[in-house]
Amino acid sequence: MITFIPRDKVSKNWIIIAPILSIVFTIFFGLLIFTFLGYNPLETLYQIFVSPFSRIDRISDILVKACPLIIIGTGLMLCFKSNVWNIGAEGQFIMGALLAGFIALSFPNIETKFFLLITILAGFVGGALWAFIPAILKTKLNVNEILVSLMLVYVAMLFIDFIVRGPLRDPMSFGFPLSKPYPDGALINKIPFPGIGFLGQLHYGILFVLLLIPVSWIFVNKTLGGFKINVLGSAPQAAKFAGFKQNSITITVLLLSGGLAGVAGVIEVSANIGQLQPEVSFGYGFTAIIVAFLGRLTPVGILFAGIIIATVKLGADNAQMTMGIPKVVTGLFEGILLFFLLTGETLQKYKIKWSEGKK
Amino acid sequence: MDALVLTIIATSIPLLLAATGELIAEKSGVLNLGVEGMMLSGAVGALGAVLWLNNPYYGIVAGALSGILMASIFSIFTINFMTNQVATGLGLTIFATGLTGLAGAPLVGKTITSLPKIEIFLLSDIPVVGSILFKQDFVAYLSIAIIIYISFFLKYSKSGIILRAVGDDHQSAHSVGYPVKKIRWYATCFGGMCAGIGGAYIPLVLTPHWSEGMTAGRGWIALALVVFASWIPWRIIVGALIFGGITIAQLVGQARGWPIPSQLLSMMPYIATIIALTMISGRLSKNNSAVPSSLGKPFFGSQ
């Protein structure tokens, strides 16, 4: 029988060990399931975890894939830290991309890259507005934000489908559900490296991530707003006594996380797709939930977590191409990883004690 | 008209079952957001079993077992390892989406025989009502039986009262000697069983073949139904029928060519969920006795 005994203080070692152990356990259980379902476990392991590192352009593709995950994950970090459960980032991503796309397509001849500032801002507004619905319902009427934000994902998916097949469809698209291509000013270019050319799809959107990590670090650790979020999440009673307004914090974190998801949507579409299509996200909004947890709800942690999860995503793409394993298999790893990460959180606060006897 | 009503009932059965199971789990203080994942597992389990054993009734059993298996995973982590219930539930749904995608891949393109209708002697001959209520399949009867049973169970049986006590105040329940963790395990697994059968019903009756993520958010709507019903079992029937009705209405609308884009019609169940949640949540005060007070809070004691 196992019992848990509270530790005097949170174990520092566990903060580092837990994520690493979680990954090891996840790989172990993942392999077990693969073997059970009749796939070659070593081949799968190679495809998912090693093949993404096999070429330099593939490594840069990891960064490209990590980009939206890190941006969304950083926003979700603020929500989860303050116990607000926004699980609708997928929908906010779509609505951000859609609003920015609408603006981009309204100026078909624009060339200056300063226009990107406007589309990115539009993306932020689009995502934030979509997150404002659960925010206002939660704070005014005590409606569960988990269910509302999730329902809005389905609504957003159907909405962009409608827009791209209807009002914004390019008449020259031969019946394909595609918008017109974005003007030059709304496109994010690939980064040219002198002497090498382009590294895979690596684009300037990565700069936003490089900016976001330090800014969010400062916000969380050095500002009053970040302090309030930390207190609200770890000691809600104390936050109440200190007079922090829970509702305004809830609204703020939802708007920020929705906005960031929207920005991720703009960057993804402007850099990699260049026009609107029915599917713009491929589950980034849901995957970012895992990224936020794997990163221990810290900006630097999320940076690394984004890269790790992006690796697995790309690896799963490879495994689908070479072994015919369905791509959704990443969910299997993500789920197990989350289980163990959360267990690690318990072990940070509690010691395990094995005791004899039946109860 | 009969056909329409029958389709609405069939559409509402998975919601009804999953929501009823979740209601029991929540009454014991466990918020399991993995309903969507448990339903998916039930669906793939049922498909696999029917293809293997060629008898739709084994699909029900397999669905139930798959749901219980998923609920056990959830229970180990949330109840024994005291992990956050919201995050673990999300994890369960993500995990099950991946697992069912993998397990369902070999089943793609295969069709199963659906669950037969059972006519109840004499009663099924009653005009109109008979053919609607007494010519249903086994799961439909089962789900009504479960609802009636748990209504009485929660209100009048000793175990039901203990279950509610555990959900309302686990510390007190623990101090008078009730095994909080064990009771939550049972309740969560009952929830998993119902969600699994609800998921199994989708391939067994509604669409007889596998597609990735075929539950299409029904698990989440079931979670919303529990709130909509304000944790009172019979109200789930009303809620499930309304949602079944809305789902069918949008399909009928698409088929008859209503002048509304099909995507906007397809949004209706999701928007209706938000509206329903909003209408109910505003009225549910925090002191409402039907809402389990310990809902979502982990229990840190031994046992």
Q: Which properties best describe this structure?
A:
heterodimer; A: 359 residues; mainly alpha; two-stranded antiparallel sheet; two-stranded antiparallel ribbon; globular; B: 303 residues; 71% helix
Question: Please, could you describe this protein's structure?
Answer:
The complex is a heterodimer of chains A (359) and B (303). With 359 residues, chain A is mainly α. Chain A has 13 helices and 4 strands. Chain A folds into 2 domains: 1-39 and 328-359, no CATH class; 56-217 and 243-324, no CATH class. In chain A, 69% of the residues lie in helices and 6% in strands. In chain A, helix 1 (12-36) crosses helix 2 (41-50), helix 3 (56-81) crosses helix 11 (284-294) and helix 4 packs across helix 11. Chain B has helices spanning 2-27, 35-53, 56-80, 85-104, 129-133, 138-156, 158-168, 170-175, 180-206, 218-228, 233-256, 262-266, 268-283, and strands at 117-119, 135-137. Chain B has a two-stranded antiparallel sheet with strand order 1-2. Chain B is globular, with a radius of gyration of 19 Å. The model of chain B has no long low-confidence stretch (mean pLDDT 89). At the A-B interface, strand 1, helix 5, helix 6, helix 11 and helix 13 of A face helix 3, helix 4, helix 10, helix 12 and helix 13 of B.
What is the compact description of this entry?
The complex is a heterodimer of chains A (359) and B (303). Chain A contains 13 helices and 4 strands. By secondary structure, chain A is mostly helical.
Secondary structure blueprint with pairings:
The complex is a heterodimer of chains A (359) and B (303).
Chain A: E1 2-6, H1 12-36, H2 41-50, H3 56-81, H4 89-106, H5 115-141, H6 145-165, E2 190-193, E3 197-203, H7 206-222, H8 224-234, H9 236-241, H10 246-273, H11 284-294, H12 299-323, H13 329-349, E4 350-354
Antiparallel strand pairs in A: 1-4, 2-3
Chain B: H1 2-27, H2 35-53, H3 56-80, H4 85-104, E1 117-119, H5 129-133, E2 135-137, H6 138-156, H7 158-168, H8 170-175, H9 180-206, H10 218-228, H11 233-256, H12 262-266, H13 268-283
Antiparallel strand pairs in B: 1-2
Helix pairs in contact in B: 1-6, 1-9, 1-10, 1-11, 2-3, 2-4, 2-9, 2-10, 3-4, 3-9, 6-7, 10-11, 10-13, 11-13
